[in-house]
Structure formats: C-alpha cells, structure tokens
Amino acid sequence: MRVSRIQAEKNRQTVIDVASRLFREHGFDGIGLKDLMKGAGLTQGAFYKQFVSKEDLVAQASKRAMESASDRWAAATAGNPGDPLAAVTAFYLSMGHREERMDGCPVAALGSDAARQGTEVKASFEAGIKEYLEIIGRLIAAANGKEPDSKAMAILSTMVGALLLSRVVNDHDLAQAFLDAATEQVRDTVTA
C-alpha cells in the first residue's frame, strides 16, 4: 500500500522523535534499525524510504534531541521568571532529570558517542551546545548584569559533568552529592 507524501513525512518525523529518545536511552549503537522502526510503529523496510543511512537518522535525531532539551530549558525559565538561572539549574541538576534518560540531556546521554560520530552528528550537537551557552549567557547577564565571558562554558561543563557522574554511580546519596555540589558551584560562579 502506497502512503501519501503527507503521511510519509509524518512517519519520518515519528521515526526521528522515537530515535531521539531511544538513542538517549540506549546509545547510537545500542539499538538497531529493526527495533527503532518497531518503536515508531513501522517496518524496517520503510527506513530506507525515509533516510539515506543510519548516520543520517542519527544526525536528525541528535538535532531533535538538542531542540527538545532547549525547549525544556525554556520551560524551566518560564516557570521561574524571577530567577531563571536557578530554575534551569534546579531542573537540570535534579534526581528526576538524572533518571530521565530517554528525555534528558542528550549531551550527558550521548556526548561520548557523539564524539566518535561524523561531522553531521557533531554539527547537531555543536548547534545545541551553542544554544545552551547562549541561554546560560543571557541568564547570567540577567542575574548579575555582567557579561557572561567564559562563565557560561564553566557552568555548562559543570552541569553536564555532574549529571553524567550522577548517572554512572549506583549510590543515590553520591549521585545527589554530585548534583548538589554542582548547584552550589553554579551559584558561586554566577556571583563571582
């Protein structure tokens, strides 16, 4: 049965959405095309009508994951307009976010995988990281009226590192300690 162009595009977007979540949970190499397509409710044969290669899908899914993460940051800032940087920090450095592998930060979930990918995947991550830095820079300027200079990079590095470390330990108290220490460090970095 032939599908319409509109349905084909909807199917493509569904595959990208599903892949962005499943890659964050399993890694780029941790899930095959058959399971990805099954997760999207499609057959494996439909994949090659939608994408040139798995690498093409990885790049598209990475871009979607980074966009989704930026949207979550925007929602956090909207939820606390009085102190939006604290809102982002509280959301990002939380045990809830630690547990959200499918919908959590793609940099923490896939950063080491992305470093081994081609230029298209790295470009998706780079664009998303630049967006993170822009958001943090604006929030720093709003919080203390100063130019963010390298503070945004230090804050992002601290946040991603703490989230990643919290995810690789079994001890919940140690995981919480990483998140708490990073929260304190972010606060100190902004006021310094």
From TrEMBL:
Pfam families: TetR_N (PF00440)
Keywords: DNA-binding, Transcription, Transcription regulation
Organism: Mesorhizobium dulcispinae
Ranges annotated as DNA-binding: 32-51
Protein name as it appears in the record: TetR/AcrR family transcriptional regulator
InterPro entries: Homeodomain-like_sf, HTH_TetR, Tet_transcr_reg_TetR-rel_C_sf
UniProt keyword Transcription regulation present: yes
PROSITE patterns given in the database record: HTH_TETR_2
Residue ranges of every copy of the HTH tetR-type domain listed in the record: 9-69
